[in-house]
Amino acid sequence: MINYLLAMATFAGIYGLLALSLNLIWGLTGMVNLGLAGFFAVGAYASALTTTTLDLPIALGLVAALLAAGLAGIGLTLVTVRLREDYLAIVTLGFAEVVRLVALNETWLTRGADGISGIPGPFRAELGAQFNLAYLGFVLALLGLALVLVERLRLSPFGRVLRAIRDDPQVTAVAGKNVLAFKLEAFAISAALAGFAGALYGHYTSYIVPDIFEPLITIYVFLALTAGGTGNNRGAVLGAFLLLAVLESTRFMTAWVPGLSGAQHAALREMLVGGLLIVVLLVRPRGILPERLPAPPRP
Questions:
Q1: Residue 97 sits in which domain range?
Q2: Does 115 reside within a domain?
Q3: Which residues contact 168 (CB under 8 A, 6 or more apart)?
């Protein structure tokens, strides 16, 4: 039971990184990114291949995940930056599915449906039974560092420009800001953070397969950010932990309902998650921790 709780807390920390990534690009910049699972997969595969096929240290695998996902974010932004919100959402969703299908079919690189196994974890052999606890501390430390850095970015002049782009990109351009450059930078940072989360996931589970990176991951992160508070980094992290708590608690709640098949239990679980989100938004329409705009800088 203890290992189960440690594992769920670790996954919540990884979802917290994904929520921070989404908050940066959607909550602050106003760009709808439905391809979060794609960047998550890019980071996971980049780090897994670096540490297994190339037999390089885990630290280099994490760096490779950051670079690969960041470059993928820049490339996708160059293609989609001039699209309106609805078309941007469709293209980013398609990107995530393309990444999953490439991972499934390019067996020479990703081993296809068999997945990549034996991904090393930091000091897994030396720590033994204490690995879960140590890795949870590792993930939480990185989550705290990411939260501090993203929060400083939100309060910086760069963050003020991102919020201006979110509110009115044309006025921001008239004010002399290069909107395209800022969108590129924001998307690259957001994608790199999502890829880093994917790398942490792979090194914890020691096994990744294309079926893991379904669009449902993106939906869950959107739910976490919406419930926690769009535009608020602390709300994003809080929403991620609450989401994992709700997902796992509903797993046990549906088991108490007799006479249902496995598919019906899964459907009931999704209904409970959706119902709880509706309750949260009715009580707190802007999320549990709504965005608070920082005070304008003194002249």
A1: 2-213
A2: yes
A3: none
